[in-house]
Structures are given as structure tokens and as C-alpha cells.
Design goal:
Low-confidence stretches: 6-18, 204-216
Distance between the termini: 10 Å
Order of helices and strands: HEEEEEEEEEEH
Strand content: 25-35%
Strand order of the largest sheet: 1-4-9-6-7
Number of helices: 2
Structural class: alpha+beta
Helix content: 10-25%
Length: about 220
């Protein structure tokens, strides 16, 4: 069997080391919960309250709120699994997660997730989330991008994705924050299956693609 050239091996190792394609958020589907607490203001494992009291919903009401609570999501189930989170724009009910390591300055990232508009009349308005980085030591923050806005309830869960370049001073920020926004009226967007991943530079992708193609030809021979 042909051996992989050192340069190609190091290139692939480099992509793995940089975490390309790896979700940097823990518990991205909100499925892991600490106990069976029920009510408002509870969040799943690894997620923290930034302001006010964002809520967790579970299909069976086993943690946080049931979809029927206050008529907010009656008839709705999670995009996948059993749980999702929602924040009210008027709070704003912001939540987030402490990053295992700071984002890399000037690196391109993709933030994505599934959103669902609330069904209660006064909350049935388009909304989304502003994504920021927070320095928990001095409360300074920098806005990264926006995710949303949601559309009518009839659309169900809808996928949104946004790509951004991290600012050069990201080493000062340790927490990623999701702050609910509204396009008019109060909104309370449900969010599920979120992802934050580094995007490889085009040159890196090209070099690896060429290297894999060469390796494949050699194996065929």
C-alpha cells in the first residue's frame, strides 16, 4: 500500500488540529439537562444565562417547560430530540456558553441553527438572534453576526446560517452569547441544533483536495 507523503499528512493533521468542521459548542442540541427541574428560567448543561431568564422546552415537559406552557409553542416539538431553547426579545432573555478556547482572530467561522417562531399571538412575530462575544471579566462585548429572522409558523423549523470573520482581539473574549432580536413586535424564537465551526481557507482546501486526488490515483495504480 502506498504511504502518504509527509506534506500531505501534515496538511491533513493541520486541518484536524485547527478543528475545521468541528462544532465548538457543547450540547448543541440542548439534550443533556442537569435534572428534572420544571418551570421558567432553566437551561441545559453547558449553557448559561446572560440576562433575564431564557427557557428550555421539552417535548414531554420533563425539563423546563412543556410546549403548551402559556401557549408559547403548542403543537410544536423539537427540531430533533426532545429539547430546544427560546429567549424573549423584550427581556432580552440572552443565553450563551463559555468557550473551551477563544476563537482565533481573523479566522472565518460559520454559525448555524434551526429557528421556530412562537405560536402565541403576541409572540408570533419574526425574530432571530444576535451573536456576540463577551468578556466576562469586564462585560465588554463585540457583535459577530445575526441568525434569523424567523418566518411564519407555517414554515416550521427553518435552517439559518451565517459566516463571519472573528475580530483580531478575540483572545479577550471567553463567552459566545445569543441575544434574541425582533423585526417588529415582541418575538420569542425557539432555537435548536446550533453549530459554530471554523471554515478552512480556500488555499488549504485546494492543497488538501489535490493531495487526496494524487493519493487516490496512486492507490488505483
Amino acid at each position: 500500500m502506498p504511504t502518504m507523503k509527509p506534506a500531505l499528512f501534515l496538511g491533513l493533521l493541520g486541518l484536524a488540529t485547527l478543528g475545521y468542521g468541528q462544532n465548538l459548542l457543547l450540547n448543541p442540541g440542548f439534550e443533556a439537562v442537569p435534572d428534572n427541574s420544571q418551570g421558567q428560567g432553566y437551561l441545559p448543561n453547558d449553557w448559561i444565562t446572560i440576562s433575564s431568564s431564557p427557557d428550555t422546552y421539552t417535548n414531554d415537559g420533563s425539563y423546563g417547560l412543556a410546549p403548551t406552557a402559556f401557549g408559547n409553542f403548542t403543537g410544536i416539538t423539537a427540531h430533533s430530540g426532545n429539547a430546544w431553547v427560546a429567549g424573549w426579545s423584550a427581556g432580552p432573555e440572552a443565553f450563551g456558553q463559555t468557550l473551551a478556547a477563544p476563537l482565533t482572530g481573523n479566522q472565518t467561522y460559520t454559525l448555524s441553527g434551526w429557528l421556530h417562531q412562537a405560536v402565541r399571538g403576541d409572540l408570533d412575530n419574526p425574530g432571530g438572534y444576535q451573536i456576540s462575544l463577551l468578556n466576562s471579566s469586564d462585560s465588554s462585548f463585540v457583535v459577530l453576526t445575526n441568525l434569523g429572522d424567523t418566518v411564519s409558523v407555517a414554515q416550521g423549523w427553518r435552517f439559518y446560517s451565517s459566516t463571519f470573520v472573528a475580530p483580531s482581539n478575540t483572545a479577550n473574549f471567553d463567552t459566545v452569547v445569543f441575544s434574541p432580536t425582533t423585526a417588529g413586535g415582541g418575538s420569542y424564537p425557539g432555537i435548536d441544533d446550533v453549530s459554530l465551526t471554523p471554515v478552512p481557507e480556500p488555499a488549504s482546501i485546494g492543497a488538501i483536495t489535490i493531495g487526496l486526488a494524487v493519493l487516490a490515483r496512486r492507490r488505483r495504480k
